[in-house]
Amino acid sequence: MRLRARVRAGDPEAFRELFDEHARSVYNHAFRLMGDWSAAEDAVSLTFLEAWRLRDRVDPDGGSLRPWLLGITSNIARNLRRAARRHDGALARMPRGQAVPDFADELTSRIDDRARLARVRAALAALRAPEREVLALCVWAGLDYAEAAEALGVPVGTVRSRLSRARRKLGRLVAAGKLQPLPADREPQAGHGQEDGDRENAVRSAQEDTR
After folding, report:
1. Distance from C-alpha of 155 to C-alpha of 150, rounded to nearest angstrom
2. Tens digit of each residue's pLDDT (9 = 90 or more) over 161-187
């Protein structure tokens, strides 16, 4: 039985396989959207819990479940960001006490390519949430237009238009000297089986004006 059908049937072993295969991509995608290691870890757990809850919606026919999982992650990241904003607002209204070090910031400071991460976060912060999600899916997660559309539950044309808007915004910011050109790295896609042409078009569309 194919993995999709086994996931739909609620096979625990199928979900273990799904986690082993895609947890890293889910984690990376969540971190790129939220910029927080701890929140990304929470998002991984919540993504697979939600995937279990929604398993009966999985079409038994089709390709990789990675786009479906990354779409769930995008929704969870959006909800976690809203919760974090409410939390920060509540803290801002409280009397000031002793500052508590942010362990996530400490971890972030230890990564080898701090400059690259800073550029990614600055670029994402300059975009609206729908544009940010499409950019993260098409450029860094390496999904083609159709897979990104599946992940977000929107038409392919919407993915293209959002990516085009993101490209124009980033291009203007780079031209004005307010943003460094975007790094071009993506996760390796060995065995993903997507169309190279669509993925390359998506990446080029997002980045050609930021060089």
Report:
1. 8
2. 999 998 888 888 878 776 666 555 444
